[in-house]
Amino acid sequence: MAPGTIRLSVVSGVMSGLEGVYDTKKRITVGRVRVNKFQLKADTVSSKHAVIAHADGRWFITDCDSSNGTSVNGISVIPGTPVELKDGDTLIVGVGSDNIVKVKIETQGAVDVHVQNDSIVKKSALSTLTVKQWIEEEMERLSAETEALAEAVLRGLAESAEQVKKDACSNAGVD
């Protein structure tokens, strides 16, 4: 699993063995019907039961006012109130059922920003950078991406201008 990903594994119930791995860009809908990214076909699961989303470097689950509720480590989730998920948590989707889902969160290489010796640092599995160094690196990366994008746009404009010129000349009978 890549850093920041979450794995949901059904360990009991009618969907036992079902697994899904999702990255931080995905909003994971959980429910009984096919449109959900993590579909649990069980009578105790609502059609749109819950949503799992990534925010501020953490994963959260929110119950969508489901009929039978959701619990995290045996504690009921209040509908509409996000609850943070941790690696190793146990979810019950449809409280009172045997739909038990284990959570695995990959955090290796995750970024942690904190204060150390009066300077803020970005800490990863590979290095520690000051905020200034990190900003400089990000600006270099963004500058290179912007430059490449600008070059592509200019090439496209030049090609379009050349095509317009050719079209105008051929319509006027000039070669």
Automatic annotation (TrEMBL):
Pfam annotation, one family: FHA
Signal sequence, renumbered to the chain: none
Domain spans labelled FHA: 28-77
Protein name (record): FHA domain-containing protein
Organism name: Marchantia polymorpha
Biological classification of the source: Eukaryota, Viridiplantae, Streptophyta, Embryophyta, Marchantiophyta
